[in-house]
Amino acid sequence: MSVVSTSKQIRQAILTSEDRVFTTRDILNASPEATRDLVDQVISRMVRSGELQRVSRGLFSLPKIHSNLGPLPPAADDIAAAVERSIGVPVTPTGALALNALHLSTQVPAKPEFLTAGPSRTIYVRNLPIRLKNASARRFRIQNPAVRLIIEALRTIGRDQVTDAIIDTIRSSISNGDRVDMGKHIGDAPVWMQPHLRQIAAT
Questions:
Q1: Are residues 184 and 88 in the same domain?
Q2: β-strand 113-116 against 128-134: which pairing, if any?
Q3: Do 102 and 151 reside in the same domain of the chain?
Q4: pTM score, two decimals?
């Protein structure tokens, strides 16, 4: 395949990506004929033309354009998903971000924080710092990200603040499959949390 044809293939892979945020590695995986240098060249051209926005070092996104505000930054959880694919270890929202994801809060944290089994680091999206904080491997023994999210949300709420309304909201935010998985991992959560998780897992 010629360089021109491969460049077109790379560009098409970027424009049709299902991921709002992606890494160079994502595009390489989607374009098996491409070299790293050629992918870098295509990405650089698309950034210069405005077709792509550079989120952070090694992270890119297809911009969404607001009629008044112009290009909008991608959501923090989309960035986390890209980072997770990039570093090959799980990433889980924590704090206010976990509550927001489960419809327990409308608060959008000024400094989104994620737990990761990888090294701690901070990624900046424009001026927004996104903190990736190392946590123990035990926190990631659960493979289902929804189950990890629920545990982090309950940890944020605190043992004496969990109400039936909160349980009902969490139950309505997850699938039956997530509830089944929850039932398998109750013992991996703090003891005080386990009765609440049983309520969430109940069918």
A1: yes
A2: parallel
A3: yes
A4: 0.70
Residue 24 sits in the same domain as residue 108: no
Per the CB < 8 A criterion, the answer to whether 96 and 106 are in contact is: no
Is the distance from CB of 144 to CB of 152 less than 8 angstroms? Answer: no
- The CATH number of the domain holding residue 11 is 1.10.10.10
For the chain, the residue count is 203
> What are the tens digits of pLDDT across the range 2-38?
777 889 999 999 998 888 888 888 888 888 888 999 9
Final residue of a structural domain among 66, 90, 118: 66
Range of the domain at 117: 76-201
Non-local (6+) Cβ contacts of 119 within 8 A are 132, 134
Whether residue 115 contacts residue 135, with contact meaning beta carbons closer than 8 Å, is answered with yes
* 48 part of a folded domain: yes
pLDDT value of residue 125: 67
pLDDT of 71-120, one tens digit each?
A: 777 776 787 788 778 777 888 988 888 898 888 987 777 778 889 988 89
pLDDT in tens, 155-174: 999 999 999 999 999 999 99
- If one counts the domains in the chain, the total is 2
